[in-house]
């Protein structure tokens, strides 16, 4: 049984870009991993744990899956949220919303929707499956990258070897050319001497 099943899930919430985001996870670190955050949003005050019954119910129904809603809205969190319809007014709505506390009566009316132990175990199992799916996708991506790197390395090695072979042949041809040049020079010198002697003999014969 995966270790994750033994840990109780909590709901964490943050705001990134145009969306509020929420996820059911066993720890803050797991939530940050699910969000793909590169820094600790909790230490920065951007993320927090939430016990809002609506948000908790939504995330526990899809543990490990990041749910979103347009930033500044009060709508439900879903897996495929639309962009805010009024981006310009989003900041003002967010500030107004952050400064208003929920009415105790509404909160009390929905307190009966808290997840029981059996549902929590199911949610933890679902989170484990989602986490395994992400890990599997990450491993496949890493394996594909490794295959690409190996193919590039093999192609580069073949190119480097071909360059070395070509240079070796060029060097061999240059060496042979040097020998031929030396032989040609020696032949020119021999012929020059012989020609002088023969021409001198011709002049003497002519008297």
Structure explained in plain terms:
By secondary structure, the protein is of the alpha+beta class. It contains five helices and four strands. It is 59% helix and 10% strand. The chain has a four-stranded antiparallel β-sheet. It is rod-shaped, with a radius of gyration of 40 Å. The chain starts with 9 loop residues before the first strand and ends with a helix.
For the report, how would you describe the main beta sheet?
4 strands, antiparallel
Tell me how many strands there are. Answer: 4
Number of helices: 5
- How are the strands ordered across the major sheet? 3-1-2-4
- Outline type: rod-shaped
How confident overall, as mean pLDDT? Answer: 80
Q: Ends: how far apart?
A: 120 Å
Give a brief outline of the structure.
The chain is built from five helices and four strands, in the order ββαβαβααα.
Search tags:
207 residues, alpha+beta, rod-shaped
Give a topology summary.
Blueprint (H helix, E strand, L loop, with lengths): L9 E7 L2 E7 L2 H8 L11 E3 L3 H9 L5 E4 L19 H9 L5 H6 L7 H90 L1
């Amino acid at each position: 049984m995966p270790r994750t099943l033994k840990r109780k899930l909590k709901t964490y919430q943050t705001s990134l870009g145009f969306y509020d985001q929420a996820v059911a996870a066993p720890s803050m670190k797991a939530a940050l991993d699910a969000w793909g955050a590169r820094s600790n949003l909790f230490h920065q005050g951007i993320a927090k744990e939430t016990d809002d019954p609506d948000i908790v119910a939504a995330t526990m129904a899809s543990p490990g899956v990041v749910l979103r809603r347009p930033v500044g809205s009060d709508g439900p969190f879903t897996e495929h949220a639309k962009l805010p319809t009024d981006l310009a007014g989003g900041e003002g709505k967010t500030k107004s919303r952050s400064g208003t506390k929920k009415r105790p009566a509404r909160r009390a009316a929905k307190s009966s929707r808290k997840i029981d132990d059996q549902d929590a175990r199911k949610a933890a199992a679902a989170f484990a499956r989602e986490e395994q799916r992400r890990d599997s996708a990450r491993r496949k991506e890493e394996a594909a990258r490794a295959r690409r790197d190996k193919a590039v390395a093999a192609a580069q090695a073949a190119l480097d070897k071909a360059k070395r072979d070509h240079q070796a042949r060029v060097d061999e041809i240059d060496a042979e050319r040097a020998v031929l040049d030396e032989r040609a020079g020696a032949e020119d010198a021999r012929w020059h001497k012989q020609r002088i002697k023969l021409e001198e003999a011709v002049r003497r014969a002519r008297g």
